[in-house]
From TrEMBL:
A molecular function GO annotation: ATP binding
Domain UspA: 10-133, 145-284
Entry's family note: Belongs to the universal stress protein A family.
Protein name: Usp family protein
Keyword list, A-Z: ATP-binding, Nucleotide-binding
Length: 286
């Protein structure tokens, strides 16, 4: 007998902010493509059955429901309230959801390190993919702007590639797979002091072949997805931020580092959460 979890629904966190409403509108568009129900969720500090009730939460959910149903047909919408704190409640929901969609981080990247951020906490701990809204290019899923995925060969990167292909297939959009390289550290045996001034064409050819091979199986699974492979010299944070300007979604794996550790060793996912110009899909083991 199979014991695998049945994951259902796209969960949109609703907190009354404009960003959360914009994220919910995007989630509705994605839910239509995936043929999944949209679950609007508001987290309250007290249990929803308390004597005080939760009228403010109802107002937030009413506003979100009006927005997601505007112009949408055949969209199944569910709504619910849950006891807080928000990050804990949303992580619990991630155990059975197909995807979480959150509004933009309400703090700067530095404040997230010092004071924490619910968006960062959920992205680092969720057991399903998390999309963090970055409201630059509109709510509707597009068939022209690409889905971009960062590829580095890690297990988490492989998960991001899998989800990026799935999104591109459901969205009917092209996929851009980006792999970055630098002279230092990432090249291992390729790098030595005397190679700093040599021709890197052999390395580039090697990396291009590796990138093509790493995508081959997914391209066979999703043959209708138009794939562009891009090899870029530079750090992944800077390169992927630049690609986010023309993308409709950018997908990366996340190691789940806490904000303080990420600030020291660097976190591509956290940088994208705060600075990307399109929604960010964070993929972790789940």
């Amino acid at each position: 007998m199979s014991t695998a979890r049945i994951r259902r629904g796209i969960v949109a966190g609703i907190d009354g902010s404009d960003g959360a409403l914009e994220a919910a509108a995007w989630a509705a568009s994605a839910a239509k493509r995936f043929e999944e129900p949209l679950r609007l969720v508001h987290v309250v500090p007290k249990h929803p059955n308390s004597e005080d009730g939760h009228p403010e939460g109802d107002e937030f959910l009413d506003a979100a429901e009006r927005i997601v149903l505007d112009g949408q047909q055949d969209l199944e919408v569910e709504r619910s309230t849950h006891p807080g704190p928000p990050a804990h409640a949303l992580v619990e929901l991630s155990k059975t959801a197909r995807m979480l969609v959150l509004g933009p981080a309400a703090t700067s990247e530095m404040k997230s390190v010092v004071a924490g951020s619910d968006v960062v906490r959920v992205s680092n701990r969720a057991e399903c993919p998390v999309v963090v809204w970055r409201g630059i290019q509109g709510h509707e899923v597009s068939e022209t702007r690409p889905v971009v995925v960062g590829v580095d060969g890690s297990e988490l990167s492989d998960m991001a590639v899998a989800h990026a292909f799935e999104f591109a297939a459901f969205f009917g959009a092209p996929l851009v797979a980006v792999h970055t390289w630098a002279e230092h550290s990432t090249l291992g045996a390729w790098y030595s002091e005397e190679r700093r001034f040599t021709d890197w064409s052999d390395l580039v050819q090697h990396e291009e072949a590796w990138l093509a091979e790493s995508l081959a199986g997914w391209h066979e699974k999703y043959p209708d997805v138009e794939v562009t492979r891009c090899l870029e010299r530079g750090g992944p944070m800077k390169v992927l931020l630049e690609y986010s300007f023309g993308a409709q979604l950018i997908a990366v794996g996340s190691h789940g580092r806490n904000p303080f550790t990420a600030s020291i060793v660097g976190s591509t996912s956290q940088s994208l959460i705060h600075h990307a110009r399109c929604p960010v899909l964070i993929c972790r083991k789940g």
